[in-house]
Amino acid sequence: MTAVVTAHGLDDLLDATGRHPFVRWEVTDDLAATWWASSDAVAFQRTRKAVHRTVNVLGDDDGVTTLLDHLPEIAATVSPARRAFSVSVPQHLEPRLRERYRVMDGGDWEWFHTTSAPDEHPSYERVVVLDDVARADEVKAFLEAHSPTADTVPGQGERWFAVEAPDGSLQAVAAWGTTRGGAPHLSSVAVDTGLRGHGLGRTIVGAVTRRAVAESGVCTLGMYSHNDVARGLYLSLGYDRLCAWASRPVVIDR
Question: Model pTM?
Answer without folding.
Answer: 0.93
